[in-house]
Amino acid sequence: MTNHYYSNRPDIPHDERSFTFTLRGYSLRFLTDAGVFSRERIDFGSLLLIETMQIDETAEVLDVGCGYGPIGLSAAKLAARGQVTMIDINERAVGLARRNAELNGIQNVEIAVSDLYAEVEGRQFDVILTNPPIRAGKETVHRIFEEGYPLLRPAGAMWVVIQKKQGAPSAYKKLQQIYSEVEEVERKKGYSIFRARK
């Protein structure tokens, strides 16, 4: 059975739900399903990242591991004159993210199935956002940090949310090895938001 939310094709039976949530002042409706991350509600880490992230109106943004879309679609609302690219290995999650973009009338998004950064190689972004898939293992999380670096424009920033008990201190150290400036911008309920500038 491949039922992890970081599986390419979860084979758990469909069980769609929907809910509405207000994010950064925008009321957004989300369809979710079995086999995707945090299907019952938007998880606290993602909410904290959404509330904390700083995104210019014209920014080009990449959401890595977008799931059904709360982080990337919120970013698209903030970058109203910019563009948000949302990627995830999970085909079911990507399908939901596309439907959620349509459901909320959000057009400045591009959503693709991608094994890590495979579909965006050679592109450049102002901001990378990630609530990394901790259960996929530290190696995968560190690859997100390392392989995101060349995709950022000069002075671009990666925003990461990570729980202390799931490795926030080691993630911070890893980011410091790669990026020129790393800051803990927010900490709440055991979660940290790191901003790592190129």
> What string, H for helix and E for strand, traces the elements in order?
EEHEHEHEEHEHEE
Please, what is the average pLDDT? 91
- Helix tally? 5
The percent of residues in helical segments reads 25-40%
**Radius of gyration, taken over Cα atoms and rounded to an integer in Å:** 15 Å
The largest β sheet comes out as: 7 strands, mixed
Task: Provide the spatial order of strands within the biggest beta sheet.
Answer: 5-4-3-6-7-9-8
* Number of separate strands: 9
Q: Catalogue the unreliable spans.
A: none
Q: End-to-end span in angstroms?
A: 39 Å
Percent of sequence in beta strands? 25-35%
Query: What oligomeric assembly is this protein in?
Result: single chain
Find the structural class using helix and strand composition. Answer: alpha/beta
Structural overview:
By secondary structure, the protein is an alpha/beta fold. Helix content is about 25%, strand content about 30%. The chain has helices at about 45-50, 70-80, 90-105, 140-150, 170-180, and strands at about 15-25, 25-30, 60-65, 85-90, 110-115, 125-130, 150-165, 180-190, 190-195. The chain has a seven-stranded mixed β-sheet with strand order 5-4-3-6-7-9-8, with helices on both faces. Helix 4 (about 140-150) runs parallel beside helix 5. The longest helix has 13 residues, at about 90-105.
Key terms:
alpha/beta; 7-stranded mixed β-sheet; two-stranded antiparallel ribbon; 27% helix; 32% strand; globular
Question: What is shown here, in short?
Answer:
This protein has 198 residues and is an alpha/beta fold.
